[in-house]
User: Fold these one by one.
Assistant:
Number 1:
Amino acid sequence: MQRRTFIKQASASAAALSLGGLTATAQSYNRIIGANERINVAIIGCQRRYGGLLDSISKTPNTQVVFVSDVNQQRQNKAIEKVAKVMGQKPQGEKDMRKIMENKEVDATFHATPDHWHAPGSILSMQGGKHVYVEKPCSHNPAEGEMLIAWQKKTGLQVQMGAQQRSSLESQEIIQAIHEGLIGEAYHATAFYSNNRGRVPDANKIPVPDYLDWELFQGPAPRTDFIDIVGDYNWHWYWRWGTAETGNNATHEFDIARWALQVKFPEEVRVNSAKNHFRDDPWTMYDTMYATLKFPGGKVINWDGKSRNANPTYGGGRGTVIYGTEGSVFVDRGHYKHYDRDGKLVTEKVSGGDEAGTALGGGGSLTDRHVRNFFEAIRGKAKLACPIDEGSISTNLCHYANTSSREGDAILKIDPKTGKYTDRKIMKKYWGRDYEKGWAPEQA
């Protein structure tokens, strides 16, 4: 089994990393793993998304899942058995991801944790010399995105965000055609998502179950009492841990819209947001949002997000419509359609693969391709489809929309060169977050 090489820091002034007890005094160096070497993987987080990731990992030659980690012992035990069945080898289980980051046998980590752990966990991985596949959104706030980019640059490791539509052959094909002038000058995109999420059960403060490590679940987030509904999926709807439906799903479509229009940071963001359904349930955020992001050069991206009304406004549950001076394109995970300026269908192409649309957990052929791309990049055979510097920008669009909503649908001004809020009070309040003492991620 190949062991990763570490360069020991000789200088006493070398920065050590510290996050809730993990300490390292070595800087990783990026070794390209050969085509015939096995890549040892740890899956961090064994909730809904890990199954799709495991399936994709299992289809990639010369890979092995050697660790699974979850703060819920019951979930972790089930994951150990599932990995053994799928991969043919039983992995180790370790509820504390920090111990895995210290293990030099692990080459890469897949992060499918709650959102508040995405960036801190990924930073720990890079500090431990591991390549990173982090689910979207890659950060809980814009400052964490900056840290991810800085650590990637410092270590030279491969860091991919799980925006798997970037690996779609059909999406790559039609976006390239748009860039080459298929619809003239692309100036506007509407990204959308529609679902019919139900009522969130009443939240009850109860003793922490003996199978759950509540301290590790909270990790970098400020401490609070345990409530019985957050352990599986409903943590998404609390700002302490989640990033709302925009972070949960708009990340994908924002990424496609931004890719198509070839834009980075907006200069203005405004939203209309509200909680329109089950207003007495413990969902603490908006469930409906319409956002407008204006970019330099007059380009615009709209986001139409409906968490609890599955009306297929644009002909499906999710996707992106791109408008140009000579036509338009609809693209989602399964196909694309090209229309002329009269609205007449010119070309349609349907993918031969499969990929979950609005279903919880995801998985399918796009995830297969995205995971394979990640491993090929580690081996030096490909460039990442969604490297962290791109993923972080797309994630920031979600953070901007969320900030506007949290400020009463305030109009936000953004510096399009830096991506930062121009209002100092907004910067101070929303660019980063408060961390539990001893759990803040280290700066690169």
Note: The two ends are 30 Å apart (CA to CA).
Number 2:
Amino acid sequence: MWSIILHGGAKTITEEDATANRAGCRRALEAGAEILKNGGNCVDAVEAAVCVLEDDPTFNAGYGSARNADGEVEMCAALMEGASFNVGAVAVAKGLRNPISVAKAMLYEEPVLIAGDCARAFAAEAGERLCDADAMNALPKGSAHEERGHDTVGCIALDENGRLATAVSTGGLEGAPAGRVGDSPQPGCGFYCDDNIGGVVFSGDGEQIARMILAARVIQALEDLSPDRAVEAALTHLERTGGEAGGIVLTPDGKFGWGHNSEDFAVAFASSAHPDPQIYLRKGKTSRG
């Protein structure tokens, strides 16, 4: 049995951008699912899926990243496996072609997170792809489409060995102060993973998600609630801060859950039992096949 769920961000999706969001989520889902179908592991699957999202300028991660207040791109990414609770994360990183691959390279290193220039130095030493920092913003300065909120991307996968992994990547908040770090690379805030309980990934208002440790709340709630109810309960807590978010969940028995209080939330999932992709731009609105 295998399952995979991913998201393209809690955000507003205009009619103009709807097709690109659906297509990007489909390509990413297919990349991760192909690995799982062939007996591959969950870590490789989430990396593959998120790499596709990072390479797609539709999404605020990797190549489509937002600019900070200094006009620079600073990216964050994290990957976690639920067997031994290993975490690899990078923050405020510049010039990484695929930040999630650098996070994966960090997974079994002693540090949980490396930031700034040290993240780029680690990536170079690990043989990961580097690029000019300015190359990671695909949009011209001042363009209407450049108005980006908090559309972090993320993925959770369950492989045939019953292992779970979560992955997140973001280009940050448009116009944020240089050096700003949101929830995305912080375990228990933007993501978490436990093979015995489940995996969770959030996207949304990073400061509010971090303050409410939303991912940790979902993991705790999963012991008593269904995946959907666990996400809904966390979003109810988030309302105390006025924040917006969307979250996805996957349990060890392959059950999906997701929810959002943002206007839209691009989500796609598939499993060995139901391999045809199901793609949503908001709860209740689906595209199959």
Note: The chain is about 30% helix and 25% strand.
Number 3:
Amino acid sequence: MLRERVAEDIFVFTSDLYLQVTASAIFTPEGVVVIDTLPFPQETREMLRFIRRYSTSPIRYVILTHHHADHSYGTYLLEGETIAHERCRRILEKDGDRILEADQDLHPELLEVQVRLPETVFERGTLSLHIGRKTITLMHTPGHTSDGVSVYVKEDKVLFAGDLVMPVPYIVGGDRHVMRESLHKLSELAMDNVVQGHGDVLLRGEIPEAIETSLQYLDAIEQQVERRVAKGMPKNTLRRLSIESCHKSRIPLNGLAEELHQANLAHLYDLLSMQKETGVELRA
């Protein structure tokens, strides 16, 4: 696990074990706010040990940016009130145990994990927490998932974007149209740092380009896949469509960005092919 300080009292922890997933801690005299957890118990425990060494204040809140396992599986290890979007609770309540059992079959390290449902949820607009002279605002930013939440610390101008902001946008299981809207919403904020759901923390000078190239990427893959579907070209022709030709780099996430890119293309091809056959626009 890597640790990085992004403000005087804000730390980001990055997984060594899975896709550079990030979790974060905001320290205040009135308590600690944790944003997401790490994929495997050993890394969440390592993060927790640092929190205990750094501060004697209790963990007051644990905020989930979305329900995905790599961000939520460590919540059972932490005290404090868990907060998320209402859809996050609904998804975990319906599917959490089933997904966990499947993951436990693949990863014995997860056998101790228990699904923990958020105690506090919000549905519309924003939810603001006022703790230790900090204003921490949760806003619904779907796109990667329907329950996506971004967290903004006004005083430090730090945004925790969850998987809405990644080295390459990932739309499988999400909605590319809604993702565009959420990215535009983020671009209106004053930001010195953006903590991505996976990968390196973005600095102020990097943020506009990261958001702009994400929007360009979504437009590019849609145009390219739409053209191939319209011409009746087979799906395997997408392998020749590189991530670089769509405004992103294959280097981040230890080279796995290209795999995510190819998954996006295959997903979009299936979606647009079905749309062509049925004549019904599909929102995904």
Note: The first strand starts at residue 2 and ends at 7.
